[in-house]
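Archive transcription. Copying these from loose printouts into the bound notebook so they stop getting lost. Printout 1 of 2:
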Amino acid sequence: MSRRSSGIAMCVGLWLYCSLPGLPGPGCAVVECETNRDCGNGEKCQHGVCQTDDGGSSPTLSYPAGDCLAAAPCQSDIDCVPLGGYRCNIALSPPECEKLYCGAEHSFCSTSEACEPPMHCFEDGCTHCDKCGNLCKVDFATDPLHCGGCNQPVGATQPCVDGQPACPADRMACGNICVDLSRSSSETGPNDSVRLTAIDDADRRRQA
């Protein structure tokens, strides 16, 4: 049997393993949706899991509301001290003195003091940093801790590519497990069943 055929056999065996009652266990993909219709309001089906749309491109930023600005140009916070309760927002062009904690979501900012609490200043814009817990922005396509959705980490040596865990060149992807094709595919386990040589993150830690 060729290496590729052996690898395909392993994938089939893994699929059967993940289909057993009481599973899936570690390394078995959980599919809870096929389309957006299978998810709740405000959620999208992303790689078989319903997720809120925390990723995406950066929003369009706007000027703070007029009552937040003092119509006073500045170069640093020192220029705004006489106004009391203002800071120099150098993200504006030209920079202006802005009232503390006044900026709405997606308004230009240079420090978090310019934003309404509990927002933070992120990439020059007031942002609710509540993505996947307390993050300001998440890229589900490449983030190794949130690959394809919130709290979906890849293995210790796996990159996240297009929202899916990827495998090193010497291993074959079976679901979200990397199978080592250089090892035997017919090792007999305690129950005289075929033991897959799938190496997940826990195995790597034990071998380290």
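Printout 2 of 2:
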Amino acid sequence: MAMDFYGSLGEINPDGKAAVFGSPFMIEEVWLDKIPYPGQKITAVSSWARSLENPENEEFKQVLSKPGKANVFSVIAWEAGILLSSVISGPVESVIDSWSSCEFNSPRGHVRMNPDTHYLESPVYQCEVTESENGFCKLEVISEISSANEEREQLLKEIKTYGDQTTNSWHNAYPCLES
């Protein structure tokens, strides 16, 4: 699907004047490596990119050095291992407290468990899809978004409001899957 989107972008936006914003999974780097650059910038937000410069990301990429293995999905699995390791390393009686107060550095940056929601919170980054040296898509991190607290609070309100409704459903936002 991502290949279809990027391939048809020139037809949809031939002069490149319309701003194009993608979902985080529209910029999954393993897929971007395979997609010819459409000739125009795509902006998106992501919680991880290969180019993030921190020791945890360097270790992560080194351990998962086989092409296509280091991606946003494997980062989530990596963090699950870190989280579980820290939670189960203490006495059984402290699991709930350890879970609620867990903080660690990951390939995404500093991650913390929100003690009220039990959702992990991590940095988010403004990114752009640009052209690589070989004419394919490449993800560039522009900056860390440091002012997302209002948006997080709004999301939490909506989860509380709509989370228990039977009309709640999953909407596939993974156009990086094969067409």
